[in-house]
Amino acid sequence: MPSNRARMISALYFLTLLSSTVARGHVAFWSQSRNETGGGSEDRCTCDAFLPSATFPVTDLVEVEQKVVEIMHKLELEMGKLEDYETKMTSYAEKIIELVVEVEAMEKDPDAYDDTDTDDVKVKIKQVEALIKELKLSINSSTAVFQSLHVQLTTAESTLDGLERTYDKNSVLKMRREYLKVQLQLEECERRHQEIFHPNVGSCAHTGIIRVSKPLVSHLNHLSPGYTSGGWGKDSKPLPDRKSMYWLSAHSSAIISEIRFYVDYKNLILRTPFQHHGLRNGWGGTGNNYIIRENTLYYQLSSPFGLAKLNFTSMTYASRVIPGASSRFSYSGTGNQNFDFAADETGLWVSYATDELNGKLVLAKIDEASFGIVEEFQTSLYKPGLSNTFMVCGVLYAVRTVDIKNEEIFYKYDTRTKQESYISVLFERFLNKYTYLDYNPTDQKLYMYNNGYYVNYHLWFNHTTKPTEEPRLLVS
């Protein structure tokens, strides 16, 4: 089967070229976030540029205005391609991995396959090669479009120089200021496009989440078709040799009894864990809001009801009871989600509800060394009315179900200012019920376990816009 192996190497080579093209690309989009449809799959992050009406009838000035409008439309058209690029890259990578498995199986046992099987694999390889070439051409085309836009802006600047020398300087200066705004918008658009593929990991220089991508569905869980509860993701503070590692826990009910570790995403898809740990008797957990941080599992302990952690390096357990935390309040639609662990750029957190506050959510900061509570924050949220919560840069975000298709990030609590406010960021849920949603600061993604599927989302943050008004406080 040497010819098949050669074709597989060729396909992988094209994917490598595609990835490097994206990494080197100098294209991007952004000026302001605008929710045009109220959320859903048609949401667009658009680049708008407007110039005032001409103050005098000069043909050259009209041409400048027309060029700006043309740039605006091109930016909007190209923006629609961003998530398609992203989704296709994930899909093509999975197709290549599946083909590698097929080819390796044929090489190990060639007698088990006939010419029809071989021809079928050849066709699949050619299809993937064609798809990758097509996507690479599309990305190159976008790069060319933005190089053209830069040329058009340079031409517009030359026109403004001429107008400034010939006509009323005040009028032209006003136009020049508007032109500079457009130029800055285009530069910011380019930076934003780069962030889609290279997020500014570790940075909290933003005012919060402004957009969530479409769901990226990775794979149906391979343990059992009935394993509809669980969680998956990456270590939020990985050890040096485990930065590419993924973990998975899945079960038919909201419990945790074992964890599997995978060297990287490829091995997660190929179903080949390098470690598999079962929890020791007496240390079993409930709920699906656990996380892994610095090679340590943090989860909800069954008995006594409280917090637990398992360090996989030393294989040692520890537990902590939080007085007042109630086992009566869970998220809507899912049981036993009483303690919800989260990790972000600022550290480790856990949220829960209390009987004393009639089910309102309490957020607590955890000292990782002592496994003790450092500080608590009381919110006005009624926990059973929430789908889930997660932390980003010391800010608690709460999610609720809007309809059969969409979730909404509708609330945030800033632990630095102790202020809570309403927001509205919609995203698609993929399937009706999910048991796990958590943010990971190592790649700035949301990870969801949804009825047996691995789902993740890219996040967009407001890096440039400052709040124009004080946040509206919630009445408790």
Strand content: 25-35%
Radius of gyration: 26 Å
SSE series: HHHHHEEEEEEHEEEEEEEEEEEEEEEE
Structural class based on helices, strands and sheet pairing: alpha+beta
Shape estimate: flat
Question: How helical, in percent, are the residues?
Answer: 25-40%
Protein architecture, described:
Residues 1-58 and 465-476 have low confidence and may be disordered. The chain has 476 residues and is of the alpha+beta class. The strands form five sheets. Strands 1, 2, 20, 21 and 22 form a five-stranded antiparallel β-sheet that branches. Helix 1 runs antiparallel to helix 3. Helix content is 33%, strand content 29%.
Keywords:
disordered C terminus, 2 domains, Tachylectin-2, Chain A, 5-stranded antiparallel sheet, 6 helices, disordered N terminus, 476 residues, alpha+beta, 29% strand
Short summary:
The chain has helices at residues 2-24, 59-79, 82-108, 115-166, 169-197, 265-269; strands at residues 209-212, 216-220, 229-234, 246-251, 255-256, 258-262, 275-278, 285-293, 296-301, 306-311, 316-320, 340-344, 347-353, 360-367, 372-382, 388-392, 395-401, 406-414, 419-428, 436-440, 445-450, 453-461. It is an alpha+beta fold and 476 residues long. It is flat.
